[in-house]
Give the backbone structure.
Amino acid sequence: MASDSLPEKKRISESTIHRLSLYYRALSVLEKEGFETVSSKGLAKREKLTPAQVRKDLSFFGSFGTRGLGYPVVELREKISQILGIDRSWRVALVGVGNIGSALVSYKEFQKQGFKIVKLFDNDQRKIGSNHKGIVVSDIKNLANELELDNIEMVVVAVPATVAQYVVDDIVKAGIKAILNFAPVNLKVPDDVFLRNENMSMELEYLSFALVNDHIPKRVR
Amino acid sequence: MASDSLPEKKRISESTIHRLSLYYRALSVLEKEGFETVSSKGLAKREKLTPAQVRKDLSFFGSFGTRGLGYPVVELREKISQILGIDRSWRVALVGVGNIGSALVSYKEFQKQGFKIVKLFDNDQRKIGSNHKGIVVSDIKNLANELELDNIEMVVVAVPATVAQYVVDDIVKAGIKAILNFAPVNLKVPDDVFLRNENMSMELEYLSFALVNDHIPKRVR
DNA sequence: TCAAATATGTGAAATGCTTCACAAGAAAAT
DNA sequence: ATTTTCTTGTGAAGCATTTCACATATTTGA
Ligand SMILES: NC(=O)c1ccc[n+]([C@@H]2O[C@H](COP(=O)([O-])OP(=O)(O)OC[C@H]3O[C@@H](n4cnc5c(N)ncnc54)[C@H](O)[C@@H]3O)[C@@H](O)[C@H]2O)c1
Ligand SMILES: NC(=O)c1ccc[n+]([C@@H]2O[C@H](COP(=O)([O-])OP(=O)(O)OC[C@H]3O[C@@H](n4cnc5c(N)ncnc54)[C@H](O)[C@@H]3O)[C@@H](O)[C@H]2O)c1
């Protein structure tokens, strides 16, 4: 069959992608500090990784270094921003302007990074129409319409766990392909929708486990 | 050498611990729904894992199921809560009562789960002395003293990235062994201190990468 | 009571990820 | 110019995690 011989799309591990974020952050700092080049060793040290790991990760995407010298800081940072797709800005909507939602809207770093929260939704009449950092809260009823009209590409979900699935169903119906969820619930989305969960309880539980078991994990992410 | 023959402490992978949290959550729901038993298949389906994965994870800690029947819901939930160390409560302090810090203090689920935020610290004179959900904000200057006096076991760090390392150094000096950090910076802590990072930008960057590369990771965590 | 169905627990295999180790390329020193 | 030093890029090895597959135990139904 023809489909058997289609060139296999190179799949990158989740860990590698997360480490690219770390490299990006480290390179931004190095740039500010005035370094022109950095070795895999130098980069590894900043993020508590091994030099081999750094080189291997980068090698999945090309060869950006110079033997004997290292990597050019600015160039590599730019290259990684291209790989991560953060060399542009993203139009983001947020659903659920409560405790955590408000904190996220107020967080300027997201905007600076290019994740522009340009739309807010809630179902509470007291919140609809109110202004948060220059954005007027929309009624969740108009979600589908307004997401499309406003060319939203990512949605952050910060509603109670009990309603998160319904909200996500609507978001998916509106054609959104990337969702960041803060509700502690396992949401069902179609295969072509990227969903990430931010689960703070899980991290506290990890710490609890570590304290109780004096835990050293086999491999640290 | 004697140390060569010491019984090797069983090391559990980070992924397994995270999945225990998922099982715990799923079991709590199943309990509410009135189920008395659940199979590895049933549990796996709820959390989008494989039955073999569920059985293997649990097998690291003992055998809790009955062949032909499955696992007793209540018993297994209790067992996992023991393993995770959440069959008790933890005294938690939070440093940095800003946007995200305030959201965390207001979040009742943490308290319900046994993560009791009982102490708040800030360095802003306008915040020190003010009351958040019944807790009076303390001056960061008294950190070491008050952490000890109040038997704090975990600290959540929600201060600006620029000062996070200083704050963490003080927390470590005060003898705290578990820290949850929200600042997007790689903090240095001694080997015997457990540090977890909650990095929201990283998750947005992951979504960005996924959209740009139409990414399917090799393995989903 | 016995057969069929179900589902665990676990070695072993398969897969994935990290680290090793070194050839090769480039810079720096002499 | 030549040697030495440095550091990348990458197969291959080593290690960790997941999945497979099945013996075994228990329940269910006849
Ligand atoms: N606050 C935290 O620190 C924290 C921490 C971890 C996880 N979470 C999770 O984040 C989510 C939000 O938490 P929160 O503390 O901000 O809660 P919250 O109650 O303060 O905010 C929830 C918001 O969602 C809105 N909402 C409810 N139903 C809606 C619907 N159908 N459509 C649109 N909007 C709707 C509410 O009006 C409210 O403004 C929850 O799932 C919670 O479990 C919160
Ligand atoms: N707000 C968000 O949604 C969000 C999202 C991701 C990450 N973060 C990170 O979380 C951290 C806090 O963010 P925020 O938006 O809440 O900021 P914020 O400025 O609202 O809050 C920071 C708080 O820390 C206090 N503080 C400053 N220096 C201190 C010190 N030395 N000791 C004690 N307290 C001190 C400030 O007075 C303030 O109350 C930052 O590192 C930020 O990057 C925030």
